[in-house]
Amino acid sequence: xxxxxxxxxxxxxxxxxxxxxxxxxxxxxxxxxxxxxxxxxxxxxxxxxxxxxxxxxxxxxxxxxxxxxxxxxxxxxxxxxxxxxxxxxxxxxxxxxxxxxxxxxxxxxxxxxxxxxxxxxxxxxxxxxxxxxxxxxxxxxxxxxxxxxxxxxxxxxxxxxxxxxxxxxxxxxxxxxxxxxxxxxxxxxxxxxxxxxxxxxxxxxxxxxxxxxxxxxxxxxxxxxxxxxxxxxxxxxxxxxxxxxxxxxxxxxxxxxxxxxxxxxxxxxxxxxxxxxxxxxxxxxxxxxxxxxxxxxxxxxxxxxxxxxxxxxxxxxxxxxxxxxxxxxxxxxxxxxxxxxxxxxxxxxxxxxxxxxxxxxxxxxxxxxxxxxxxxxxxxxxxxxxxxxxxxxxxxxxxxxxxxxxxxxxxxxxxxxxxxxxxxxxxxxxx
Length: 431
Fold this sequence. Notes:
This protein is α/β, with parallel strands linked by helices. It has 2 domains: 2-55 and 326-426, Aspartate Aminotransferase, domain 1 (Alpha-Beta Complex); 64-324, Aspartate Aminotransferase, domain 2. The protein is 38% helix and 15% strand. It has helices at residues 2-14, 48-51, 60-70, 84-96, 112-127, 144-149, 183-200, 228-239, 290-294, 309-324, 327-346, 376-389, 411-426, and strands at 29-31, 34-36, 42-45, 105-109, 131-135, 167-170, 207-212, 242-246, 270-273, 284-288, 352-358, 361-366, 391-392, 394-396, 400-403. It has a 7-stranded mixed β-sheet with strand order 4-10-9-8-7-5-6, sandwiched between helices. The chain has a 4-stranded mixed β-sheet with strand order 1-2-3-13. It has a 4-stranded antiparallel β-sheet with strand order 11-12-15-14, covered by helices on one side. α3 packs antiparallel against α10, α4 packs parallel to α10 and α11 runs parallel beside α13. It is globular and about 55 Å long. The relative contact order is 0.16.
């Protein structure tokens, strides 16, 4: 471990502690569903760069696409001239998009957080309304605009709360919400709370839109109850709000569909993408209904590097691989198998509480056996122990293991990863 320890020491000397790390592992190479550290040790990757590496590490087609583009053009800036990869990627995303977005228009940015900020600007600009409704437990990014909508951890807002404005938060109907006896009832109550806010504190004519993650990401991988997203869509239609779907983590196959909203048949007015879109390179996107995008005047937004040709070609190759290798079906099948394995273990392992998610976006909540409360005091060390044992994994929510491997994961690799995780959990004692 000498090379890894030396690299870690250099990291600590030069990188600000604001950049939180889940583990002390080092990574110097990736291949498929595996990562390798500076000392040559191999790890099965159940994090995929936080749900980013959809087709795994160093997929030959993605590498070749980037190499070919690098030999032609690195960068020229979308503000100066037209670059074909920028156009081609938006054309492809639009062809896959749900509902009225198939005729939409978009812009490319550098990340999911930037895309969130652009979407909020667009919604406010075209409606002339200043407010956004968002949800507790949601994560939309850390820059100031996106941070105003983020509500998954008070740490993100510390010393900044008075600056994160323009967003009204309501509860998300998770099983741990302090109201409702069933998922459907919790969803109905949240919809009623929004209506009540519109009657008492939020002038409807001041609300530009509702921003929602179709499945909570950083907040704990909670799937919404039946009828909830449909209810939000109905509210938007009733009051003239825009339905803004943050699919930065859920989009492009993670849940077994191209977009998570498809599970509920909901068509957004604005769609936000990031993470997997760039195939491992920095890229985000906003796609909006055509009439909304056309009302966004020239100069109202921009990005020097957004939609650079290298990232666009990596994204185009990634989407082609997902299509041609049947990775949506793979995500559904392997995701269902992983869920079955964890559900089976749950029956004899009181440390495992809820198992939830869709496709290869699974959350395994860890709880204190005596109280049933999330094992928040232990989750950090459990994540580090699992990673040291050979499976790179992260957490979400208070105490949920975030299982988000590349979509190329095989059944054999799924078994390998589950056995390592369960072996750590079997030996863990909470006192």
